[in-house]
Amino acid sequence: KAANAQVLYDFTAEPGNNELTVKEGETITITNPNIGGGWIEAQNSRGEIGLVPEDYIEVKQKIAVGQDKHFTSYTGLQCTFCDACNQITHFTLMDSWTPSRCTVYSRTLIVPVSKNITLKVCMHSTTGADDDEWDDEWDDVKSTGGYAESETGEGGAMQRGGAHATSMKIALNKFPGFSKSGPELYLLCKQLAKGKDRLPIYMGEVGPVWFYPETQLDCVVADPKKGSKMYGLKSYIEYQITPNTTNRPVNHRYKHFDWLYERLLDKFGSAIPIPSLPDKQVTGRFEEEFIKMRMERLQGWMTRMCRHPVVSNSEVFQLFLSYKDEKDWKTGKRKAEKDETVGVMIFSTIEPEASDLDPVEVEQKCEQFSRFTKAMDDGVKEILTVGHEHWKRCTGPLPKEYQRIGKAFQNLSSVFTSSGYQGESTLTDALTAAGKTYEEIAQLVAEQPRKDLHFLMETNNEYKGLLGCFPDTIGVHKAAIDKVKEGDKLVATSKITPQEKVTMAKRLSTMSYALQAEMNHFHSNRIYDYNRVMQLYLEEQVKFYETIAEKLRQAHSQFTTM
Amino acid sequence: KAANAQVLYDFTAEPGNNELTVKEGETITITNPNIGGGWIEAQNSRGEIGLVPEDYIEVKQKIAVGQDKHFTSYTGLQCTFCDACNQITHFTLMDSWTPSRCTVYSRTLIVPVSKNITLKVCMHSTTGADDDEWDDEWDDVKSTGGYAESETGEGGAMQRGGAHATSMKIALNKFPGFSKSGPELYLLCKQLAKGKDRLPIYMGEVGPVWFYPETQLDCVVADPKKGSKMYGLKSYIEYQITPNTTNRPVNHRYKHFDWLYERLLDKFGSAIPIPSLPDKQVTGRFEEEFIKMRMERLQGWMTRMCRHPVVSNSEVFQLFLSYKDEKDWKTGKRKAEKDETVGVMIFSTIEPEASDLDPVEVEQKCEQFSRFTKAMDDGVKEILTVGHEHWKRCTGPLPKEYQRIGKAFQNLSSVFTSSGYQGESTLTDALTAAGKTYEEIAQLVAEQPRKDLHFLMETNNEYKGLLGCFPDTIGVHKAAIDKVKEGDKLVATSKITPQEKVTMAKRLSTMSYALQAEMNHFHSNRIYDYNRVMQLYLEEQVKFYETIAEKLRQAHSQFTTM
């Protein structure tokens, strides 16, 4: 079931890396979608085969009509199929390009409205893994004819931070902080929130810091279980989440994680970068591998949220982790959805203990954070690029070469055994053992990336996602700075009172304390995370080289020169 | 000074190895002749660059006319230039293709007679390294017009054994055992040699064996010195050879080694495989490297000859190692050149102590040796092929990748340093150290092949050369077997007497004992050599992996999670 794909961007192969040079607009055939590390193997029209970054292509396929009772046909659409499962199992209709998501591999697809072509949508999720927003939105599509969904559904997923930056095609405008009103909604509001929602900022050793609870919240995501509905036609995965506070497990589907993400983004997104949920990046050759990978990433996401003192202490997050029963969950859900302290209004709950900052200092801080996050984004992406290359080599050409070395030694040993000369069994046994050792090394080399590089890549991927959120967070901040700079003009033209100008500067100071607290939180996490992942990486690398050295030492001991 | 080259054979690039696919007859441009390991880097007409085996190409270049007083022009020739030095400094004219040798890099070139093109021959050897047969044969060419040389000079070098098999173009017919007369010269000769030339064969534990002296001859080739003649226009290298018998050094130029090789081939070639001298395979980026490499290989050749009980004990070999003065050397030289016990007549000096063998058994043994040497030739070539690949990867893409990993860590460390967050110098120092460690690993990886793979390759190259001689040695033997099989017919047609038929069978038995003794010598050397080289290889490999593990362990120790 080789799928064709269209090349979205020019890509020039680096020599010696098994890569394939492709041009924008060129059509290629996917020969192996399961390379991993962000690569697929494809063949061009000249028959050349090589690796291409999966972000650079879009899988297209002509659509066959109604061969199966599980398919429902829709006309008026041309669609791109999931490059891994070759099916579309979910889509949202829009009057322009719209992203759709494969329910098996959770990849975001592009569904352009185009000539009269019939789109078949598989209702029978073949592997059973399920994004499970599917059912809801499927129903929506059916009831509305599909053209009323442009403001809901997948659109939100597409513009979450920078994790998808390279594949983003549409700039939607749904981000809470960028509503018509902008940061002035907060800067000029009459009344600040009071009471239990209050978020204090203290002065710590490193500067402004959030309030950190004495015991840090944590949770374990485990035990994925398959459930089904619609008489077994649709199946989904339910995860068990156990927080260290109640120690009582609650169940959630991916859909609920996504709901939580949307709430956190709405509520905190202007002040705190909320990284997107793992979705389209998740791939896996088998269903179990896919589920395991997604669970690992959901765990990573939850751990990061638990570690955040503001997020973890929020009502909606606590609800998610420790609702008592279905009724409790539904009530809490409804309440969270009605929360009005969202977008820039989150700043109205923040109370710094220190004195107000000068707008000039605020701007300097902001510039510094902006420079740093941009630079770190570049650094992280460099590591990811190099890591992908290395992964490819370690799982491709390198083990093949060690295998060939091993085979060559063993073949020579066989030849020597046939010599008819007596007393050379020590040599031939030793040569065979040396050959087998190199075959074992081949396997060690191929398996190693999953043991060390994997975690280095995961951590950097997480940071890439986090860093991709900063431009938005910093954007809100910069808009506020600009507003305050306009202060005099606004007073002169009677748009605001002199008192409001003073209030704006004070509130900008509050926003700056929030940004600084968040940066300090980011830095302390970053230092911990990179220390930890480098330790893990180097520890496994040491083991790897030591294991090889030990195997070779044993092989060496079998040779004798009389 | 990029040289063009013509592709001699189709070569298909293996993906991921930096190789370039080329077609027979295609013209490519050499972009780097100094890759080593039997590869050159070239560019095709489409601008693609990659590695091509140097055996697969032939360097061609248009010849400019008379720009320099050191050049002498010859017309009527088209010539191929040395791909390393871009000059021809020696050639022999023939009425068909003739090999010529570059005096700088000792590569054999092809000089076809063709349209009226002027060949310029540089009389001024630019780097000074010198094959130094040059002067003699240069004189010959001048005096005879060049067309009388077809039976002497380089022709001999071209058909030495299998080392050059892949680049052989002409089947000359100079091998002593294949003269008009063939093995019957010995099988039917009247009188066998007697006296001090006698070569006894004893029955040892492993079967027939040569007589081994109590102390094994050995010698050290060292101290290459530049000499010059023709008022400094020609220079050459003289090596000092010190045998363990006299412990008195003698000096020889490459030319003398070649003379010795020719004598040994003439005298023993029918019974004992005499490997060719290192020549065209020798390459080096710098003159010193070239001289060192040639010396290393001359040492290897001399050691192998010293280890051979028959060769090392021969008068000509002893003369080479321990002549007393110039007069002694010249007298000995003349005597050796007049030796008539050459070609198949060497068998007339061999005296086995065991009883005669049945011709059927002789044939079985011969078949077995033939199969074994063919199989080992394949095995050795496989190791060489795999070794070349591995060499290329270890000195090319792999260290580049480790370097990039190292740079990525160091870049991230720089970014972290710019965070403005206090107290992360432990992390940034550790990250920088880890980055530097990977740069060091890059260097270790790139340097490693010279420490281990080099010797594995050299030993297998030596064996490839040796094994390439066996088809000729076994060919003489098979011709003798066929002759003896014809015995009855020859008697019936009165070509030979019944007594001569008996003598032929007896002498074939002697030849078989010689072949068996030689095989047993080969086997015992082989077992020693492969044990030794594998020990060396694995020892260095263990050191390599241990060094890396230790470096990484140190890098690891710098990270801390509080």
Automatic annotation (TrEMBL), chains A, B:
A 1,2-diacyl-sn-glycero-3-phospho-(1D-myo-inositol-4,5-bisphosphate) binds at residues 253, 255, 294. Keywords: Cytoplasmic vesicle, Membrane, Protein transport, SH3 domain, Transport. One of its GO terms (molecular function) is phosphatidylinositol binding. Gene3D superfamilies: Arfaptin homology (AH) domain/BAR domain, Phox-like domain, SH3 Domains. PROSITE patterns: PX, SH3. The keyword Glycoprotein does not apply. It is found in: Cytoplasmic vesicle membrane. Residues 217-327 form the PX domain. The keyword Protein transport applies. One of its GO terms (cellular component) is cytoplasmic vesicle membrane. It comes from the Eukaryota. Residues 1-62 form the SH3 domain. SUPFAM superfamilies: PX domain, SH3-domain. InterPro entries: AH/BAR_dom_sf, PX_dom, PX_dom_sf, SH3-like_dom_sf, SH3_domain, Snx9_fam, SNX9_PX, SNX9_SH3. It is a peripheral membrane protein. GO terms for biological process: cleavage furrow formation; endocytosis; endosomal transport; intracellular protein transport; mitotic cytokinesis; plasma membrane tubulation. Belongs to the sorting nexin family. This is Sorting nexin. It comes from Sphaeramia orbicularis. The gene is snx9b.
